[in-house]
Design a protein that fits this description.
This protein is 37% helix and 20% strand. It is an alpha+beta fold and 483 residues long. The strands form three sheets. The protein has a six-stranded mixed β-sheet with strand order 5-6-7-2-13-12, with helices on one face. The chain has a six-stranded mixed β-sheet with strand order 8-15-14-11-9-10, sandwiched between helices. It is globular.
Length: 483
Amino acid sequence: MPDQLTALDATFLELEQADDSAHMHIGGVLLFEPHGSGGAPPLELIRRNTEARLPLLPRYRQRLSEPRTSGITWPSWVQDEHFQVAHHVRRAALPGPGGEQELREWAGDYFSQRLDRARPLWELTEVELADGRWALVTKTHHCLVDGVGSVDMAYALLDAEREGSELPTEPAGSPDQSPGSPAMPLPPPVRAAGRAAQRTLALARRFGSGLRGFAGETASAAAHPRQALAHSRALVEVLIRDELVSAPRTSINDPIGAHRSLAVLEVPLVRLKRIRSELGGTVNDVVLAATSGGLRKLLLAREEEPPSEGLRAMVPVNIRAASEHLQMGNKITSLFVHLPVAEEDPRRRFERQMAEAETLKSGSQAQGSRTMIDLAAHLPPMLHTFLARSLFATRLFNVTITNVPGPQQPLYCLGSRMLAVWPLVPIAAEHGVGLAVFSYDGTLFFCLNADRDTMPDLDVLREGIEQSIEELAELAGVGVEAR
């Protein structure tokens, strides 16, 4: 049987086909300390290091059998006989003065460009900053892997120790081979790279992947449904709560263009943990409450009354089992979380956010969302495209928020320590902004991905989230020592 896309995987191709403003790739900016005597590693070294690890990621040598979804069958993954790592691993230069601001602006432009569907759907670009630090900027299509799976992919390219692996001196197999096949013997440099990556993956599994808090607890119910009746009741809950009662209309849900901009906020993880300890709830509650406060400040700055019923966030939920690390495709469902942006008082806003989480824990919304996705999978591509668009429509949600915990120990690439991660979540048509949150080595990284035209005031939202965290810290009595 061909390695066919699932209906959920194909959804992200259909969203791009339906609207030129949609870019359905995920990725991030991985920032590293200077390499060796300074600066970035040679591009050829990064290419060899990447190619040596591709046997861990066999689909990264595969392309779509058809560039578009249509007709009665889904496209399949087929081997790319003309695969060359040089087509996917490149280098780019920043404009002067070459600092983090220029990196963010460059990354916004980079993420505004779609991937070439005639080739394997991923790219890796090396960028050097003026102070000697360097970045690997990743772009992978959502039909290839989901957000949590893309973190696993990054782990495969990184090392848990500074020494790393023996560097490869030969390319990892020829294009007509099937990398990753158990029958294919791997040359020693590739085995060395694979062992290093496996150590990193073991570290990742120790800290866990996927959403925590209410999302993770509810996901287990979606992953292991007990009976058909539970499915039906859960589906009814979703249809009544989130299909019939539309999300409010606001200025962040106007038609968008194709150009993106990024804003980044870094917060010590211990600071959010101290807030959680004093005020209750989870770190995820703190993230959502701070985002609610930031969105409230954005709407007020636009002289727009925050809707009394709150905004609605789509929170992707990982249902990938621990045994499914390094497996491709999408293993997610969704929760729809209300954000109390109309609440002026920070304490009451946080309490309402926690209450929302408790409601979702006791409900079956994630199971219902998964049931709706499963039912849609039985539709042929020519009909499924209409449902795909409805699953990401503004009537369902105003903003996407994803929160993925990463390892709290440093990772390395070619001996350089990774300093920061700016994660990317894609935004669908008429969704002006999305927020991805990733924790790594004691820091929580907030990265806002926004439409450049409808969100010229993106910094207002970033500063609003930062101010909301400070308000919660003051309520919790968390001093500057937790910064």
